[in-house]
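Suppose you are handed a protein chain with no further information: no name, no annotation, nothing but its sequence. What can you learn? This example shows the usual starting point.
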Amino acid sequence: MASAEKNTVGFDLYRPAEEHDMLRESVRALAEAKIAPFAAEVDEEGRFPQEALDALVSNDLHAVHVPESYGGAGADALATVIVIEEVARVCASSSLIPAVNKLGSLPVILSGSEELKKKYLGPLAKGDAMFSYCLSEPDAGSDAAGMKTKAVRDGDFYVLNGVKRWITNAGVSDYYTVMAVTDPEKRSKGISAFVVEKGDEGVSFGAPEKKLGIKGSPTREVYFDNVRIPADRLLGAEGTGFATAMKTLDHTRITIAAQALGIAQGALDYAKGYVKERKQFGKPIGDFQGVQFMLADMAMKLEAARQLTYAAAAKSERVAAGGPDEDLTFYGAAAKCYASDAAMEITTDAVQLLGGYGYTRDYPVERMMRDAKITQIYEGTNQVQRIVMARNLP
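A reasonable first move is to predict its three-dimensional structure. Written in structure tokens, the prediction is:
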């Protein structure tokens, strides 16, 4: 009984630290003031959210994960999640700026030489460049180890040839982490990772994909036609690229969970406000039990997804700091899978709550529902996430 009588006001085990709460407040204020006003226009026109990039760079929120030693903010994994979540709450396309900057540059942080880290992380931290991640190919999606892009050693250089597909922010990003086959006989153990620059001779881009959602984030094919790069742009040793790619995804699937959380929160917030104002049968529709039950389920799923995502982010941070793996592969996959499934359900219900209005582009929940869908697909489909989880049960 003695322990039960203790003052538990300071019991911080299951809540973010005060600085995380303060970060959320500041990012939310920025997102609502500088990003939200352009979200519908960005979606309608299918254009890159330059206003969001400018606002994020001005406030050092475009790549918060970069360590302080390379000029970055040195934010932890949970802080990175909160930034992405709060931006996604108003504009999913814009949230891919901090999310993909982490995805593209994390292989450099994990496996790059000190020289490469200084060369590429510095400009990223300053906002002078963005980073993208090139893993998928036309015939190598879920089966990433089946890629065909090749890198052949030629003296002090590698020569790259191939095609990468579904590359987020392609054409806008200056730097690309590229996975390529260096030894075709070894399958996944014959894949290596490189940094390729947008300006390297032989690099070109396809037309932007015409997508269901996240229309403000360009998705293009990237072509490598005899791209000759210095051998010192190899990340780690030859043959370790696939392992680096998978280790990267263990950490960055959590950022997709964060994006899903933000989209879902934005939809729930809008729906809550709407049902208080919309009247039918002489009273607000929020007074009807059927509507209340829908909102309760939406909030419950969202909070469950948030707790799982934050726990995964904490594990990611401890692993990144050199701790044991803490079943990070399972938790990263679980957070991404559960949060994205929840986001799809919550945004669909938000559209339902708005009725006919929800089905029009005059209201944001229609956009949020379309944006939510991709979170179930990229960085590994949710079917693949379930395979990953089953193979890595804690």
